[in-house]
Amino acid sequence: MSIVFAYTSPVTLEYVALPSAEPSFETRHLAALRAVAEEGSFRGAAAVLGYSQAAISQQISALEARAGVTLFTRPGGPKPVALTPAGRVLLRHAAAVLDRLDQARRDLDDLASGTAGRLTVGTFQSVSVELLPQIVGRVRLESPNLQMRAVEEEDNLPLQQGINDGELDVSFLAGPVSDTGIDLIELGIDPFVAVLPRTPEFESRSSFTADAAVATGLVGEHRGNTRTHIEQSLRARGLTPRYVFRTDDNGAMQAMVRNGMGAAIMPQLAVDASDPGIVVLPLDPPLPPRSIVLGLPKPGLRAPAAERFAEIAREVGRERLQPPASGVSL
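^ that's the sequence the OP posted. Answer follows.
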């Protein structure tokens, strides 16, 4: 029932009760409706649902009262009960509601186990090529029903924001990173190297200096955390970067170096070392390395699948990266 106010005079207020516009159905009543329809009797429904026959009868009576219609014909004796036309209409909706609730329970169970549901991963270019495919492959072997989606950015800020906003379940970041709003796991160190065209001059070297790379002319990025990190490190040594080509594609950078455009300073993870047209040399003295960091929401906001993703990411990091200088454990 609902209540409205009716003014009958300037000083008199009456309460007028109106019938409720929508019946309220309980899921146990809908389950009883389906069981009686399937079993053809109240006794059979009671056995299936684990109630007494009287309880099933009460639930159907309550459902009929709330719906305002008769749902079953009750011939008595051994004859089965039968749905009325109204009962058939309500059963169709009841079955849909109960099926959706069953699916919701299964989805919640899958979410809790981390074996199904959805996982959105933030990443950046070199991780997308060298680390993420291996991690995804291992996750898929364990959880083939888990739907994964990846979002690639070149800057940490949108990735961190994605975690904080709940749009990303987990994200790779180029470290060092400081963010008190998320948990950070350092997966490993990714040193910077000099990438040079394969010539007798460079093949004979065992290392390369940042000064020499700048003097050769740099092939580098337009934007991103890596470019910022490299430029800050060079300027700290009194070196001003001089670019001969810029691109945000690691493959294009390497192609330009291969063909003699200039030298590149790149994270080791971003370099295709199998390229026969280049020489990859350690920098001496080295630039401060970047770290590969995994960011996750705080516990309680974290998808269970993200926990296992992080464990596998740490395994792959140990295989592909230098040991981390420090780390935050889950």
